[in-house]
């Protein structure tokens, strides 16, 4: 069964599950309303007949029953949302395979036109590589996917990522459950900055021994006075007096409690999602070195990270209920605010040092899951070999991952050695630019640790550089030609650093000037960069540049050609050795109405 059918079947199953769970959710919602009305009616009835025992039983029993039903309701809501998000995940997978990616996150926040290749290779934005690869739903995961696609990793790191990705590829149920759990943070913005700010603030009440003692002693006295009032007839004023003392204590800490709720209330759903993601991580049976390492930070002998995160979420969730009628009632009698603040600060004291590491490791698992999901959806892709030898790029049947399979044309090429230059000539619209993007995109994915669109693929660690979409900038008074010159200056600066070997791709080199200057400048640049720590591709319409093979032994000519049959121009988009031997500009001009 192909990937599309698998995803469609899973989507249908999750949609059926969602419908069934939603029915149960609505039924329990109706039951909650009914119970609440019943409790109010009973309290009114018992009050009218002056039945204190009946009121007491109602006030105690109904909140317990109501709480149990709410817990069940929330559990069903969790499973319902998981089913809904799981259906959405499988819909997104089929959308990627069909190149319908409009609704997917474009990663626009990571765009950078000054980066060596991001803009030219469509790494971010509409119909981008990021949309094709990223399954990350947390900020840390999205940032790491972007980072991996933006710079080459070292070989040892790539190998570790590849091992982790290979292990995770067949774990379809686990991967989608992990992703769906993270999607449960809802539509709210992630406010983890303010949450982390609160976590890193010093504690204020944890060491207040007197108030900690009062938080336990006063509620016991309050309950005792209420019982004595009901059964012995003790004056109600004793109870009222003690409740007033409780109120004064609550007032003392009210501003601090409000500060906690203000900084955390928009993070509750996200915190819950993190807790569920961590629980899924803890239950996995990983084998690869990287996955076992990432899992290890969540599992401890005395506690698990998921339990800790969910414990904090519950504490903060209870604090958010301070405006609830039941909470207000019990808060005055039992000093809930103090108990919850003590618990929250104790949590901070115990877990503060671990929190950032937990979130970072979730992000890395999301990045690995993204590459694994990309590989699973495209089983014909291959995991590249990373060469120990510098200046190596060899591939057979390499295609562009953003072009649909039915339209994709694959090409084969091999280049090795410092200073290697491939001149690519070709007629208009023959595929030169697309081929350069195909090379750059697949290398970027390979050096991120992912699978590539090819039958075979070997590459050494390289820094990709492109100069393809040079644009004018009216604000900076920069013409498109000068923009290209600045881009070339950026390449020359990079080559002077003598850092990672560079693989450059220069498309339609120096296209913004006259043919004489263009040829002289292009030839000079090729001579200059052929003697640097680099290798690369230069596409051009200038056939004379191909003659540089006479003086530069590392230069080789390739071309894309077309055939003119009558009024039609036929492109095969296949890379051939040698200088271009077909031309179509005149025919293209004729087709749009120019009388040649």
Automatic annotation (TrEMBL):
The keyword Transmembrane applies. GO terms for molecular function: ATP binding; ATP-dependent DNA damage sensor activity; mismatched DNA binding. GO terms for cellular component: cytosol. The keyword Ribonucleoprotein does not apply. It comes from the Bacteria. It holds the Pfam family MutS_V. The chain crosses the membrane at residues 29-47, 53-70, 213-240. GO terms for biological process: mismatch repair. Keywords: ATP-binding, DNA-binding, Membrane, Nucleotide-binding, Transmembrane, Transmembrane helix. Residues 419-593 form the DNA mismatch repair proteins mutS family domain. PANTHER family: DNA MISMATCH REPAIR PROTEIN, DNA MISMATCH REPAIR PROTEIN MUTS FAMILY MEMBER. This is DNA mismatch repair protein MutS. It comes from Fulvivirga marina.
């Amino acid at each position: 069964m192909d990937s599309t059918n698998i995803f469609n079947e899973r989507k249908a199953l999750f949609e059926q599950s969602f419908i069934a769970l939603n029915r149960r959710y609505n039924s329990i919602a109706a039951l909650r309303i009914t119970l609440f009305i019943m409790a109010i009616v009973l309290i009114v009835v018992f009050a009218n007949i002056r039945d204190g025992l009946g009121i007491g039983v109602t006030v105690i029993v109904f909140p317990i029953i109501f709480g149990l039903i709410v817990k069940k309701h929330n559990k069903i809501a969790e499973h319902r949302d998981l089913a809904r998000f799981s259906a959405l995940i499988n819909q997104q997978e089929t959308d990627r395979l069909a190149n319908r990616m409009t609704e997917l996150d474009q990663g626009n926040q990571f765009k950078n036109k000054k980066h060596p290749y991001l803009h030219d290779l469509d790494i971010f934005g509409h119909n981008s590589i990021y949309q094709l690869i990223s399954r990350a739903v947390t900020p840390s995961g999205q940032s790491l996917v972007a980072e991996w696609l933006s710079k080459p990793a070292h070989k040892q790191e790539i190998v570790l990522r590849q091992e982790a990705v290979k292990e995770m590829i067949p774990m379809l149920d686990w991967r989608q459950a992990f992703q769906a759990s993270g999607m449960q943070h809802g539509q709210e913005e992630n406010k983890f900055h303010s949450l982390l700010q609160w976590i890193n603030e010093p504690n204020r009440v944890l060491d207040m021994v007197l108030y900690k003692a009062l938080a336990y002693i006063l509620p016991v006295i309050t309950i005792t006075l209420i019982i004595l009032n009901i059964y012995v007839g003790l004056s109600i004023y004793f109870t009222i007096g003690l409740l007033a003392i409780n109120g004064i204590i609550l007032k003392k800490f009210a501003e601090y409690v409000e500060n906690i709720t203000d900084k955390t209330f928009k993070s509750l759903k996200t915190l819950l999602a993190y807790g569920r993601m961590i629980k899924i991580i803890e239950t996995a049976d990983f084998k690869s070195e990287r996955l076992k390492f990432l899992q290890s930070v969540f599992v401890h002998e005395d506690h698990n990270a998921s339990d800790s995160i969910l414990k904090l979420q519950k504490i903060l969730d209870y604090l958010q209920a301070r405006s609830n009628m039941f909470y207000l009632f019990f808060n005055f009698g039992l000093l809930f605010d103090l108990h919850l603040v003590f618990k929250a600060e104790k949590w901070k004291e115990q877990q503060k040092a671990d929190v950032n590491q937990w979130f970072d490791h979730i992000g890395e698992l999301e990045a690995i899951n993204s590459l694994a999901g990309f590989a699973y959806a495209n089983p014909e892709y291959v995991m590249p070999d990373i060469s120990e030898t510098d200046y190596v790029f060899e591939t057979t049947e390499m295609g562009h991952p953003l072009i649909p399979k039915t339209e994709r044309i694959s090409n084969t090429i091999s280049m090795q050695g410092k200073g290697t230059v491939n001149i690519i000539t070709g007629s208009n619209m023959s595929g030169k630019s697309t081929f350069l993007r195909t090379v750059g995109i697949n290398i970027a994915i390979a050096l991120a640790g992912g699978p590539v669109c090819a039958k075979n693929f070997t590459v050494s660690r390289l820094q990709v550089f492109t100069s393809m979409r040079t644009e004018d900038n009216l604000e900076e008074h920069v013409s498109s030609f000068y923009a290209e010159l600045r881009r070339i200056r950026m390449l020359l600066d990079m080559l002077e650093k003598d850092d990672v070997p560079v693989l450059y791709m220069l498309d339609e080199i120096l296209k913004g000037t006259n043919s004489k200057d263009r040829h002289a400048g292009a030839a000079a640049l090729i001579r200059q960069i052929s003697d640097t720590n680099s290798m690369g591709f230069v596409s051009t319409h200038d056939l004379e540049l191909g003659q540089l093979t006479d003086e530069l032994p590392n230069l080789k000519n390739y071309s894309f050609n077309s055939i003119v049959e009558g009024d039609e121009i036929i492109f095969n988009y296949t890379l051939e050795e040698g200088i271009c031997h077909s031309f179509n500009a005149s025919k293209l001009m004729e087709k749009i109405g120019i009388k040649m």
